[in-house]
Design brief:
binds manganese (II) ion, about 15% strand, elongated, alpha+beta, 4-stranded mixed beta sheet
Length: about 700
C-alpha cells in the first residue's frame, strides 16, 4: 500500500508546493475511518481510495481532487458525515464527497425508469463539477482492475455498465487512455472467448513483427533528424477491443484488418507537425482517404493530432499520428490536462470538451420525462458517434446512423434546406446512405430545393428533423400564398380595379386577417373568395350578375391582359398536381381546378373528368404553361396501345419508348381477344411534341395496330 509520504511526493512531482497538510489529513482521516474494513479480495479497504487517488495523480490533478478521492467512500461506508467532512476539509470538498456518495448509491443497471433517473443524477452531478466525474471514473477504473474477486454474474453486469456508460463518458471528455483501459477490462468480462482470440492474434503478430516495428521507428526518427526535425517516435498496437469492434462492424476476420500497427510521432512545434507530414508523404505513398487533420479542427473533446496512413517500407500499411507534446498531453489526459484548479476558480473552464458536455447535459436535463431523457441521452451522448468531414476538412460529429442530410443540417440549416444530393468520398451516392466514420461528405445544393417531407423519417438528428418539418411547412405555405397572389391579381384585373399589396394591407381589418400573407394563403387554399377581397378593398364595387368565369376579360389600364396563372411542374412555387386520369403536358390546352386545401389540379381542357366539377361548385382557375427547355422537367401522360399478342411485344414497346427518352411510370396490360393485347402506359415526357413523337414511333411498328392518348 502506498505510504502517506509517497502520495505527497507524487503530487509534488507536478505541483509546486502542494498543500501537504490537506493531503496528509485526508490520508489519515480516510485510513482511520475505513479501519479494519476489507475488500472482496481480502485487501484492506483503504487500499481502494488510495489507489483511486494514485490514478488521479497520474492525471496530475490538484490536491483537492486527490483529497476527495481519498474520502470518496467514507460517508457511504463508514460513520463519517457530511458535516464532519465540511468541518475538517471545507464545504467544497464536503460537497464533492457527498456527490460521489449519491452516485455510489446508483445502481445503473436496474429497470428502465430507475436507470433513467439515476443516469440523470449522475450527469447533473458531473455538470456541477467535472472533478466528480474524474474521481468517479478513477473509482470505476480501480474497481474494474480488481473485479476478479466478484461473482461472475456480478462481474459481467458491472462490466456491461462500464462499457455502456463510463467508457463513452471518458471518451467524451477526451481521456482516451482511461477509455481504452475501461473498454479493455470490460471486454474481458463481457466476451471472454472473443477477448482471448483477439489477444492471441495480436501477440502472434507482435512477435512476428517485432524487429520490423523497431526498424520503422528508428528509421523514421533518423530520417526526420536528417531533415532537421527533432521527433520522438513510438510504435503502438491497436487495443484488443478496438480491433474486435472493427472486425464486428465491418464483418472482417483478423487477417483482413489493416493498420493493426500505428506509430506516434511527437515533435516540438506546430510547424514541425506539418513539416513531418510533408516529409512522410514524400518518403512513402499515402493511402488516399485516410488523412485527417485534427490540429486545425480539433475533435469535440479537444483532441488534436494529424492522422495519416502510408504504405511502409515492407509494403504494409502504417498508421501515423503526428502531434506536439502539448497535444499529446491533452490526448492522454483529456479534461484533466486543463487541471489548474486554483482557489475559487471554476475548474476546467478553458476546456471546450467540458463546455460541450455541460451544455449537452443541461439541454438533456431540461425536460422532466425520465424515459425521454434516457432515450435522448442514449442517442446523443452514449451511442458511438461517426465523425465525418467536409471537403475542406471540417469535422462534423454525428450520431451513428446519420445520413448526408444530417451532415448538411449539422453544417448549416441553409445547406440542409438546399441539399439535393451528395458525394461520399468523391462518389455520387444517395443522400439516405448511412455515414461511416471518416467519410468525406460533399453536399450538392440547389437554391430551388425544398427538403422533401419524407426525409423527416430518414434522418437521425433532431436538428435535421425539426428543420425539415419547418422548411416543408414553410414551402407549402409559400406555395399557397403565391397561388393566392396570382388569383387575386387576376380577379382584380377582371374587375378592372388596381391591385397592390399596400391596398390589401389597408383592408386587413375588413377581411378579419392579421397579415397580407394570411389573406393570400387563404385565397390560395380556396378558403376565401377573391370577390370578398375586392369588396373589402373597394367597398362600392358591385359585381354584375354574370358569374365571374363567364365575364369577358377586359384589358387592364396598362393595356395588358390580366395574366393567367403560370404553371410549371410539381416542384414549382405553386401547389400543383396533374390529373390522375391521364396527366397533362406542356402544349396541351389546360384548365385548373382549385380544391380546398389541395392546390390546383391541372387537366387538359378536353378531359371528360372536368364535367364532374361543374356540379360540385369547384373553383375553376385560368392557367397557362410556363415551362422552358432548361427546366428539364417531365410531365405525366397516358397512352393506350393495341398490339399483337405475342412474345416480345411488350419488350419492343418498352424499348421504343425508352429509346425516345420516354420515362415509363406505370403499365398495365389486358388481352382483348386472343390476338390482341391492350396496354395502358403512363409515361413522363418533356411536352406535347415529345409525346407526339413517341406515339408516331410506336405507330410505325408493324405489331402496333393503334396508339391513342388518354386524357381522362
Ligand atoms: Mn469507491
Amino acid at each position: 500500500m502506498m505510504r502517506q509520504y509517497e502520495l505527497v511526493e507524487r503530487v509534488a512531482g507536478y505541483i509546486d508546493n502542494p498543500n501537504e497538510a490537506l493531503l496528509n489529513q485526508a490520508y489519515v482521516y480516510a485510513m482511520q475511518k475505513h479501519g479494519e474494513q476489507k475488500r472482496a479480495s481480502g485487501d484492506p479497504y483503504f487500499s481502494h481510495p488510495l489507489e483511486v487517488a494514485a490514478i488521479l495523480t497520474d492525471l496530475h490533478l490538484d490536491e483537492e481532487t486527490i483529497a476527495v478521492a481519498l474520502l470518496h467512500d467514507t460517508i457511504e461506508d463508514t460513520d463519517a458525515t457530511r458535516r464532519e467532512i465540511d468541518d475538517l476539509f471545507g464545504e467544497r470538498i464536503g460537497h464533492l464527497v457527498e456527490g460521489l456518495t449519491k452516485l455510489k448509491r446508483l445502481d445503473l443497471v436496474t429497470p428502465e425508469a430507475k436507470q433513467a433517473e439515476n443516469l440523470r443524477r449522475l450527469l447533473l452531478a458531473i455538470s456541477d463539477d467535472i472533478r466528480v466525474l474524474l474521481v468517479k471514473l478513477s473509482d470505476r477504473l480501480h474497481n474494474m482492475r480488481t473485479l476478479g474477486a466478484m461473482r461472475p454474474d456480478k462481474c459481467k453486469r458491472i462490466a456491461t455498465e462500464t462499457m455502456e456508460i463510463y467508457a463513452p463518458l471518458a471518451g467524451r471528455i477526451g481521456m482516451q487512455d482511461l477509455r481504452d483501459e475501461l473498454e479493455e477490462l470490460s471486454f474481458r468480462y463481457i466476451n471472454p472467448e472473443a477477448h482471448q482470440t483477439v489477444i492471441g492474434h495480436l501477440q502472434e503478430l507482435a512477435e512476428k513483427n517485432k524487429s520490423l516495428t523497431i526498424e520503422i521507428s528508428e528509421n523514421l526518427e533518423k530520417k526526420l533528424a536528417d531533415a532537421g526535425i527533432k521527433a520522438r517516435v513510438s510504435s503502438r498496437q491497436k487495443k484488443p477491443y478496438s480491433v474486435f469492434r472493427k472486425m464486428e462492424s465491418k464483418g472482417l476476420n483478423f487477417g483482413q484488418l489493416s493498420d493493426i500497427y500505428g506509430f506516434r510521432i511527437i515533435v516540438e512545434s506546430l510547424e514541425d507537425c506539418y513539416r513531418t507530414l510533408g516529409f512522410v508523404h514524400m518518403e512513402w505513398a499515402m493511402v488516399p482517404g485516410r488523412f485527417k487533420d485534427y490540429i486545425s479542427v480539433p475533435k469535440q473533446n479537444d483532441y488534436q493530432s494529424i492522422h495519416t496512413t502510408v504504405v511502409g517500407p515492407a509494403r504494409q500499411r502504417v498508421e501515423l499520428q503526428i502531434r506536439t507534446e502539448k497535444m499529446h498531453k491533452v490526448a492522454e489526459f483529456g479534461i484533466a490536462a486543463h487541471a489548474s484548479y486554483k482557489d475559487g476558480e471554476e475548474p476546467a473552464l478553458q476546456s471546450s470538451a467540458y463546455q460541450t458536455l455541460r451544455e449537452t447535459i443541461e439541454q438533456l436535463a431540461e425536460g422532466d420525462n425520465p424515459e425521454e431523457f434516457l432515450e435522448h441521452t442514449k442517442l446523443e451522448l452514449f451511442l458511438d458517434q461517426v465523425f465525418c468531414f467536409s471537403p475542406k476538412g471540417r469535422i462534423i460529429a454525428l450520431p451513428k446512423g446519420a445520413t448526408p442530410i444530417d451532415f448538411a443540417y449539422a453544417v448549416h440549416t441553409d445547406i440542409g434546406n438546399t441539399c439535393i444530393g451528395c458525394k461520399l468520398n468523391g462518389k455520387i451516392m444517395p443522400v439516405v446512405t448511412e455515414l461511416q466514420n471518416g467519410d468525406e461528405v460533399e453536399i450538392i445544393r440547389s437554391d430551388k430545393q425544398t427538403p422533401p417531407a419524407a426525409w423527416e423519417s430518414v434522418v437521425a438528428t433532431g436538428k435535421a428533423r425539426s428543420s425539415i418539418r419547418r422548411a416543408s411547412k414553410q414551402a407549402v405555405q409559400k406555395q399557397y400564398s403565391t397561388l393566392g397572389a396570382r388569383i387575386l391579381e387576376r380577379a382584380f384585373a377582371k374587375a378592372d380595379k388596381p391591385y397592390s399589396s399596400e391596398l390589401l394591407e389597408a383592408s386587413l381589418s375588413r377581411l378579419a386577417r392579421q397579415s397580407v400573407n394570411d389573406v393570400l394563403t387563404d385565397i390560395g387554399r380556396n378558403e376565401m373568395l377573391a370577390e370578398n377581397v375586392i369588396l373589402a378593398v373597394y367597398p362600392d364595387y358591385s359585381p354584375d350578375g354574370e358569374g365571374e368565369e363567364n365575364k369577358p376579360v377586359k384589358k387592364g389600364k396598362d393595356g395588358k391582359k390580366p395574366t393567367r396563372i403560370p404553371i410549371r411542374g410539381i416542384n414549382s412555387d405553386l401547389p400543383v398536381k396533374f390529373s390522375k386520369e391521364g396527366g397533362a403536358v406542356p402544349g396541351d390546352n389546360i384548365v385548373g381546378i382549385l380544391v380546398r386545401g389541395e392546390g390546383i389540379t391541372i387537366y387538359p381542357s378536353e378531359s371528360k373528368t372536368l364535367a364532374q366539377f361543374k356540379d360540385e361548385g369547384a373553383h375553376l382557375v385560368d392557367v397557362r404553361w410556363d415551362v422552358s427547355e432548361k427546366d428539364k422537367e417531365r410531365f405525366p401522360a397516358r397512352i393506350k396501345i393495341l398490339v399483337d399478342n405475342k412474345p416480345g411485344s411488350l419488350a419492343m414497346i418498352a424499348e421504343v419508348i425508352a429509346t425516345h427518352e420516354g420515362d415509363i411510370q406505370n403499365l398495365s396490360t389486358k388481352v382483348v381477344v386472343d390476338d390482341f393485347m391492350e396496354m395502358e402506359i403512363d409515361i413522363d415526357v418533356w411536352g406535347l411534341s415529345h409525346l407526339t413523337k413517341i406515339i408516331k414511333q410506336l405507330n410505325s411498328k408493324p405489331i402496333v395496330s393503334k396508339v391513342e392518348r388518354i386524357t381522362g
